[in-house]
Design goal:
Elements: E1 2-5, H1 13-18, E2 23-27, H2 30-43, E3 48-51, E4 63-68, H3 79-92, E5 93-104, H4 106-111, E6 116-120, E7 126-134, E8 139-147, E9 153-161, H5 165-174, E10 177-183, E11 197-204
Parallel strand pairs: 1-2, 1-4, 2-3, 4-5
Antiparallel strand pairs: 5-11, 6-7, 7-8, 8-9, 10-11
Length: 205
């Protein structure tokens, strides 16, 4: 039994279900959950989907594993709110259950920081990124401008907390989750200053 916390449209939940796991997906966006339901039906698999904030996981000692993949942790108001998420994960896990979290590597981001960046989408939309890193708070402030092919503009943004490995391991321990190991990418490579990802495995006692 696996909980995909912040499951989005089921990018990871559906392949896991196809491999025989019993998967529950939880997300704050009902829109994404509806997409996940449609995609699961199209793939011929069953998902249990829950609409809710990751600070309130409505399960206790239910799952063998919880996953949180592709930088879905760190968008809350402060460290204390992020800590609530880890406490909920510990609550939802069975004894000995595993927690697998994938985050961007702060060390890589700081060493290769780009305050301005852009990319072009397949439909011709230009996406402009303006970033400002608050090093005291370790929070990355990102403003995003989308310019569509017809010239229309939309603006959005977010603030994201980058945790170091040291900080994350400490928070996990405080939530009752013991650090097991860390990787630098999904190819199983070691973690270092030039790793793009920080992928951590922890276990409930």
């Amino acid at each position: 039994a696996i909980l995909d916390l912040a499951c989005g449209w089921g990018r990871h939940a559906i392949p896991l279900a196809q491999r025989g796991y019993r998967v529950t997906g939880q997300d704050l966006s009902q829109f994404h959950l509806d997409l996940a339901r449609e995609a699961a039906d199209a793939a011929g698999v069953s998902l249990s989907l829950v609409h809710g904030d990751m600070r309130e996981v409505p399960f206790e000692a239910k799952f063998d594993a919880v996953i949180n993949i592709f930088s879905a942790f760190g968008y809350l108001e402060n460290d204390a709110e992020d800590a609530k998420v880890l406490q909920q994960i510990e609550k939802a896990l069975q004894p000995g259950g595993k927690f697998f979290i994938d985050l961007g590597n702060r060390e890589y981001v700081v060493r290769n920081y780009a305050s301005l960046d852009w990319q072009q989408l397949e439909d011709g939309t230009m996406v402009l990124f303006e970033r400002q890193m608050d090093l005291l708070a370790s929070r990355n402030h990102v403003s995003i401008t989308l310019i569509e092919p017809d010239g229309r503009r939309r603006e959005t943004g977010h603030v994201f907390r980058f945790y170091t490995l040291t900080e994350l391991v400490k928070m996990l321990a405080e939530a009752g989750l013991a650090f097991q190991r860390v990787w630098g990418d999904f190819d199983g490579s070691g973690y270092g200053l030039d790793s793009r990802r920080m992928i951590v495995l922890a276990q409930k006692a």
